[in-house]
């Protein structure tokens, strides 16, 4: 988290973050992740480690939740540590920030490609270049298996 500090919106840099959800502690379930998320207006940080030990994730300006459409703001971004931190910010081309239902969580989109997606049992995910963030593929493979996932929110 400290490495991401400079990239967060200024109002959040001095805020205390706490772990809201972790696959190690809470099991692998997108439903449980939604239930443990913070208040709707509260930002969220999603940290993922895949089975090849690559770390990456997303910052969302709003809590991660079930939704019928996309939500979030241009503060949302994707990032990867490969091996140094790379941050992929909003391009302004569309507003496909975050969208989730019980089977799929998506961050970033456009032309049917998602910057980051996770399936309902949180075992599999994928990453593609997308118009929202013009990101690189966050993991070494376009589809990956999740080893650990954490959701951080403001205390």
The average pLDDT value, as a whole number, equals 94
Q: SSE order, as H and E?
A: EHHEEEEEEEEE
What is the first-to-last residue Cα distance?
14 Å
Shape: globular
Descriptive notes:
Strands 1, 2, 3, 4, 5, 6, 7, 8, 9 and 10 form a ten-stranded antiparallel beta sheet that branches. This protein has two helices and ten strands. The radius of gyration is 14 Å and the shape is globular. A hairpin with a 4-residue loop joins strand 8 and strand 9. The mean pLDDT is 94. With 155 residues, it is mostly beta strands. It has one domain. The chain is 7% helix and 35% strand. It starts with 16 loop residues before the first strand and ends with a strand. This is TLDC2 protein. InterPro entries: TLDc_dom. One of its GO terms (biological process) is response to oxidative stress.
